[in-house]
Design goal:
The protein is globular and about 60 Å long. The protein folds into 2 domains: 17-61 and 204-279, Rossmann fold, CATH 3.40.50; 101-200, 3-Layer(aba) Sandwich (Rossmann fold), CATH 3.40.50. The chain is α/β, with parallel strands linked by helices. The protein is built from 8 helices and 15 strands. Helices cover 30% and strands 20% of the residues. The relative contact order is 0.17. Bound molecules: magnesium ion.
Length: 280
């Protein structure tokens, strides 16, 4: 597939793009929902893809909820998948950090309670600010309660030699009120203070894609569907997948988003207004 943004002319218009694929890795924020609001048409499109026998795996850099909670939210929208079909950068980063810290090893987590739960579930011991200097690993993910005490604690842990992992470098998170500071903004503070660079577990790096593709071993023609060029499209491309950019979230053509499609490299294989357009 080339760099073009349109489907080749020889495709009959009556054949939806979804017919080209057996499976989809689907981003959540900006694709399925924005904040608490479903993207119009997306839940119905996902239910139709499942009914057509397509393999779906949801891949999100947002570790704010555990997979079972995302599965419940999807089910409430009529999209019924098991929690094993939902892979977050939280799962990927928890595995990396737990492996670095060893069984029962201390890990300092800057992130939401759900992320701390995932790190514990991988066998590590989550330590609070006071114990941070003894941490074997630091995990960073944007959350609303990020503060200077966490920044200081992370610096102390990193200066003492802890390994540094983060869920992503996504600078922002789409919300119904516009873009909010994301993990990349928080991570920049941590990295700047410590003079260290984190290993990224989420998109566009390979860890999350490897977990997602392992969940659908039978699917041969797989596409990544996402709204962010720098994570979904770049990561999908690097993972050898077809990439479908939807304009319902961060990378909108109206310039409201923080990314520029015209100058993006790599370019997405397909550009659609939203997920529902996969079936039109
Ligand atoms: Mg997104």
């Amino acid at each position: 597939m080339g760099a073009g943004c349109e489907r080749p002319d020889e495709y009959p218009a009556a054949v939806p793009l979804s017919d080209d694929f057996d499976g989809f890795l689907v981003d959540l924020d900006g694709v399925v929902w924005i904040g608490r609001e479903p993207v119009p048409g997306s839940p119905e499109a996902l239910a139709a893809l499942l009914a057509a026998g397509k393999e779906l795996v949801f891949v999100t850099n947002n570790p704010g909820r555990e997979p079972a909670a995302y599965a419940e939210r999807l089910a409430a929208l009529g999209v019924v998948v098991g929690p094993e079909r939902i892979l977050t950068a939280g799962i990927a980063v928890a595995r990396l950090a737990a492996a670095a810290a060893g069984e029962g090893g201390p890990v300092f987590v800057i992130g939401a309670p759900a992320l701390k739960g995932l790190v514990k579930a991988e066998g590590a011991r989550v330590v609070e600010v006071e114990e941070a200097p003894a941490a074997a690993a630091v995990v960073v993910s944007g959350h609303r309660d990020f503060d200077y005490a966490e920044l200081l604690a992370s610096k102390r842990a990193l200066d003492a030699g802890a390994a540094l992992f983060a869920t992503s470098r996504d600078p922002t998170l789409p919300t119904p009120e516009g873009e909010w500071p994301g993990t990349g903004a928080v991570l920049a503070a941590v990295e700047t203070a410590a003079g260290r660079r984190a290993e990224i577990a989420g998109k566009p790096e390979r860890h999350l894609f490897e977990l997602a593709l392992a969940a659908i071993p039978g699917a041969e023609r797989v596409a990544m569907v996402g709204d962010r060029l720098s994570s979904d499209v770049a990561g999908g491309h690097a993972a050898g997948l077809a990439t479908i950019l939807v304009l319902s979230g961060t990378s909108g053509e109206d310039g409201a988003g923080s990314e520029d499609l015209a100058t993006a490299d790599p370019q997405p294989d397909f550009v659609l207004p939203d997920l529902a357009a996969l079936l039109r």
